[in-house]
Amino acid sequence: MEKVAQYLQEHLLGEVTASPEVRRHFAHDASILRLAPAIVAYPRNENDVRKTARFAWQLAKRGRVVPITARGGGSDTSGSALTNGILLVFTAHMNRILTLDPRKEFTAVEPGVSYDKLEQTLFTHGLFLPPYPASQNFATIGGGIANNAIGEKSVKYGDTGQYVEQLRVVLANGEVIETGPLSKRDLNRKLGLSTFEGEIYRSLDKLLEENAELIRDQRRKSRAPHNATGYNLHNIRRKKDFNLTPIFIGSQGTLGIITEANFRVIPYNPSTELVLVSLEDVKDLDDVLPKILELKPSVCDFLTKSVIEEVTRINPHQLQGVLIQPQAAIHLLIEFDDPKDGSQRKAMKQVQKITEKAGGVYRLATRSDDQDQLRKIRESVTTILTSPRGQSKSVPVAEDVCVPVNRLAEFLHKSTQIYNDNGLPAAAWGQAGDGVVRMQPLLDLGQLGDRQRLFKLADAMYRAALEANGSITAAAGDGRVRASYLAHQYSPEYVELLGKIKKIFDPYGTLNPGVKFSSLEQMRSLIGGDYSLEHRHEHLPRS
Ligand SMILES: Cc1cc2nc3c(=O)[nH]c(=O)nc-3n(C[C@H](O)[C@H](O)[C@H](O)COP(=O)(O)OP(=O)(O)OC[C@H]3O[C@@H](n4cnc5c(N)ncnc54)[C@H](O)[C@@H]3O)c2cc1C
After folding, report:
1. Which helix (H) or strand (E) holds 290?
2. Which residue's CA is minimally distant from atom 18 of ligand 1?
3. Were both Cys, which of 39, 122, 200, 343 would link to 127 (CB 3.0–4.6 Å)?
4. What is the pTM of this model?
């Protein structure tokens, strides 16, 4: 690798290092896995990315595969921001907002810009980019597109991918392409290109046409509101156009490296109403949730009694006076942001009626200080995530499954059983309106017994999600952690199709290999005994 580092040092504008300290730092993302890069590079511009890909391509053609992995904030929980090859860290320099046109509600950004920085800038113009992942303080737009991040606002506004209009992408061989909708004529022009881009369009068009029925059939079967497993093969080849953008969304850096993204952004209404609904029985969700969703809330999150119990065990004062019914089985935090006069009030009255009919209790917060109080309930999850018990820590595994909303209550019942059978408290939280369930078991990964429990637990949770017609991952991605479970969710023909897609874009396997396609054994060998999120305290040159 010394020669590779030397070549990159000589040819890139950005810094390149193989220092053991830096490599150790980047051996972590937010997953349970550990893998140290051989080289860390901080690209200053697209040309740096292009040169790195081109060099890796040439080496691979001669039989030496040097993996390239893009990295944003490193908050990925699926182990997909790790590599043993070259890590391209975008947060150092390629972190700018390039264009913001408030009138056209449009922005163009580099991939290393954080959600937070972008949102702060958009707010000053009365705009925002949904969906608000909980990690937005440290997650980047590049990572958000590559994982198709979702968040609290997804119930009304959808996922990150829905706002992406166009991408600039460096392909495996170093060519740069721009994605976007192509008319029949434009597509024909692409199909005629003698470049790698032309080869991609030709092979993909043919493969998607041959497998159109298989793709439609898979879509018909899936009932999960969000599904980040595999590749998004829908909406590429459409009647009126052909668009490569969707395939890169959620592809976890395995098909190309994003160097610029154009987004549609939307008006933001800071004046909202927030309400906490506490229900006696999780089963009440079956009746209450559909009625609440008809009112079009902008947030509909939940947390279970076990979360409150765990938080209170760790810090008895944290939620004092915030909850009116701490013993309730489930709490829903519901926000309305419709700017139309009187609409939020009307929705609130409806929520009150629905709650009272179900025998639940209700607390409305209109003033911002009251709303801050209520938000503390959801934020209290951080206490669980950051408080070890002895050597045991909350670890992300099967922490992002997604089920149809009408099966959420049933799934929560089943997952509680799974956790309790393994001697663990079943603290669950997530997005009720999107059927997204997050649970992180308290385990000591240094202990063999706990590692075994981890696999048992993950296996049972994925099976339960699939039995409920859901998905093994809403947005965290299959990465390395869930790659071997792809075959649980999809038919062998569909898994084979996904493999062919990867081959079209990455014939030599240089783009984030091991991600989306790897075995359980490969994943097991990467589990670190020292799970922590300390790498988030950054270690970078900056501009
Ligand atoms: C406490 C916590 C809370 C979280 N909450 C949420 C949540 O609410 N919703 C949610 O969706 N996720 C959540 N996540 C997961 C994670 O934050 C998201 O997946 C996020 O989008 C990752 O962004 P990142 O910048 O950290 O990307 P990274 O972790 O650096 O990378 C993620 C993936 O993107 C790829 N990538 C990065 N940059 C590029 C690029 N330029 N081109 C191509 N590929 C690229 C990487 O190779 C990797 O595969 C949470 C994580 C933590 C630790």
Report:
1. helix 285-294
2. 76
3. 122
4. 0.96
